[in-house]
Amino acid sequence: MHAPVLVLQDSLKRESGAKVRYAVIQAAKAVADVVRTTLGPRSMLKMLLDAQGGIVVTNDGNAILRELDLAHPAAKSMIELSRTQDQEVGDGTTSVIILAGEMLHVADAFIDKIHPTVICRAYTKALEDAIAVLDKIAMPIDAQDRGIMLGLVKSCIGTKFTGQFGDLIADLAIDATATVGVEIGQGLRDVDIKNYIKVEKVPGGQLEDSRVLKGVMINKDVVAPGKMRRKIVNPRIILLDCPLEYKKGENQTNAELLKEEDWNLLLKMEEEYIEEMCMQILKFKPDVVITEKGLSDLACHYLSKHGVSAIRRLRKTDNNRIAKACGAVIVNRPDELQESDVGTGAGLFEVKKIGDEYFAYIVDCKDPKACTVLLRGASKDLLNEVERNLQDAMSVARNIIKNPKLVPGGGATELTVSAALKQKSSSIEGIEKWPYEAAAIAFEAIPRTLAQNCGVNVIRTMTALQGKHANGENAWIGIDGNTGSITDMKERKIWDAYNVKAQAFKTAIEAACMLLRIDDIVSGIKKKQAPGGSGSSKPKIETEADADNEQILPD
Known about the structure:
4-stranded antiparallel beta sheet, ATP binding, elongated, ATP-dependent protein folding chaperone, 20 helices, 46% helix
């Protein structure tokens, strides 16, 4: 009866006391400091060694934090913020970490004097007011205007590595999202980037050779290259989700053969079964048959004899994209095929060789709802970074299509929110006034970090900016991340999507509130004992000195 209790006592490590919140704040600040230098167009790159021993060179906040192995649970919680931001809106992953770190840093001053619940209440009120200011300064735009869309996507990826390549990535992102966008009623459009836009990275060539295909490209060749056509104009395409080969018994099957003719009969039955399947497909006169499963040599013979090209063992996701691109329906059994299931929307089926590999193109589709972005480049590291930047650019384009509103970039939004909250803090009564004002100051972390990364005089620049935003005026005045000069963001076309900013504010403040409420860290992990060492069964309760010495980031 007592054994479970003993195990719990043996494995219980409890950290308590006034220093816990301090340790949590320090952990969050340490994570924010890791990505602080990667904010803005003049940001630094980080070189990381991933778990497989490969090298990642990037300035994408989420990609950097994903590779870190952190000891403190609060630091791990911070990493989840950038992942949430990346999944929701695809951009602002660095901003959200810096903002959350700053929110906790400014709370450090009152953590001993004011109860955390009061601080969280003030922060929540500040968040509501910040979103109200965002709504006020947001500028509605026409999502169909390509010029505005191009300017917005360019300004959002201007902070990335590919910002140096001009319009290229922005053009690819807008073309891809415009292709797969579908109407969902009430004038709204939905864009499914994950399922219907495939990024195919092919090393070699120049980055300028990258393009969006009006269709799908897959890393496959036809089953019998010598016998099957590799180029077909206006193909009729059939997509299958079943094997074109003889079914093998699920259980062990015993067949007793008495005569030699019985063996031939068994083989003939197999051949007839495959021939019947092929004939059910061939009566619809297809040019291309694509299946997710296997395709036997005999089926390959029947298909090639009738001039049909076949591709086998295709991924499910690729098959779905081809269905969306050419208008075909994926069929589970050949005997259920109908004329309406045949895809006739593609203009060209062609197999090309790039480098040492063959790629099948199903392109020039009439109204494709899926597409492939073909990326070319000098090395795999470059292509991986371009792909990460392209994903961000496509997410920004999707956000604008979903919610066509802009807010100023370059730290102007944060300064406007900060000035508005400072003004409002004078009307707040009671003890909540101080954390509310601290939250207002925390918003200035973004423009301050931008100024630091530009290499300009931070104090002088911030003073000038605060002066311009003092009375809630000049909402569009911010920092040009390239030169560090104070300019009008409208003139420089430095914009941010409304969704990205709103999500960053919500995620950062809600996470800060959650971390501030932590007053105990209890770990149930049993520490490994040295061989022959006698372990104490008593729980070890850490002192405040131990909490101070806790290692936050690994060496």
